[in-house]
Amino acid sequence: MKPIWASRVRLCAAVVMFALPLIVHAEPLIFASYPFGDPVRVQRGLAPLVEHLADVTGTPMRLVITRNYQELSSRLADGTVDFAWIGSANYDRTRIQVPSIQYLATYLEWNRERTERISFYRAVILTLADSEFETVESLRGTRFGFTDPDSTAGYAYPRMMMMTAGINYSQFFGSVFFLGTHENVIRALLAGSLDAGAVSDGTLFNAQSEHGDQFRVLMWSPPIPLDAVVAADHVSPALTAAVRNALLALPADHPVHDTIERVFGWPAAGFSVMPDEFYDPVFRALELRNR
Fold first, then answer.
1. pLDDT tens digits in sequence order for the chain, 291 residues long
2. Rounded to the nearest 5 degrees, what angle is found at the Cα of 156, between the Cα atoms of 152 and 157?
């Protein structure tokens, strides 16, 4: 008769052997975001979301803010990023380069009345309220500011809007600047360094709350799909599904949403899975941008 303790040792060893793959990770997975504002602020605003996903899935994760839009796209392609919060134009460009990128969900916001969850936002071309400029056409020869060449609301859509109006910005404006973030465009306008610029409507609303009615909108864009959460192609289907389910299960009053609204001023309302064609309209803006 074999000793009881020997059987127990073998049983414990078997349990540990099967449990280890579920709880042991050599390194935390990387959840990355593009720098849509000050990187420290982006880190502060998204950290609770990443911590929540790590807790719910039992998978250690670390939040990384990339230096620019292109780095996020490149790192999704080369597999050094596992999950990402990505802007719509950057997402479309990345899925052209890496068709196997895995879409998880789309970020949602409340409308201004907080009666409906919406999946889009808009870009605006704006100037100061006390300026002489009343239309985009009146900006000929002026100083104009975009955010980043890979930005959706800060470049791709405003350029499409200008081209639709018959404006080739490189020949139309006296000087053009790429200032990196939407907030930098607002700062430059207020400092008198720009005559006009392009930002997201959320940036405009935040600036109005902080600085009052100092801005005049010259043009609004069509609706733009809100940011997506995606996974690199090497992430397992099981983990991809777990993260997607965790996003969709976030209740409207969850602290993750409170933090996003407090830090970014965005009326966060959760996440939803959209149809495959949802981001297709962004392709037109990208095609025009590349002409």
1. 444 444 443 434 333 333 333 434 558 999 999 988 789 999 999 999 999 999 999 999 999 999 988 999 999 999 999 999 999 988 988 988 899 999 999 999 999 899 999 999 999 999 999 999 999 999 999 999 999 988 889 999 999 999 999 999 999 999 999 999 999 999 999 999 999 999 999 999 999 999 999 999 999 999 999 999 999 999 999 999 999 999 999 998 899 999 999 999 899 999 999 998 899 888 776 765 555
2. 85
The torsion region of residue 79 among left (phi > 0), alpha (psi -120 to 50) and beta comes to left
Rounded Cα distance, 180 and 68, in Å: 8
Phi, psi for residue 242 in degrees, rounded to 5? -65, -40
Delineate the domains of the chain, giving CATH numbers in brackets. Answer: 6-118+225-279 (3.40.190.10), 123-222 (3.40.190.10)
- Please state, in angstroms and as integers, the Cα–Cα distance from residue 161 to each residue in 57, 219, 285, 288, following that order: 42, 8, 9, 10
C-alpha closest to that of 159 among 89, 69, 72, 86:
89
Rama region for 229: left / alpha / beta (φ>0; ψ in -120 to 50; rest): beta
Q: Angle 65-71-77 (CA atoms, 0-180°, nearest 5)?
A: 115
User: What distance in Å separates the CA atoms of residue 113 and residue 130, rounded to the nearest whole number?
Assistant: 28
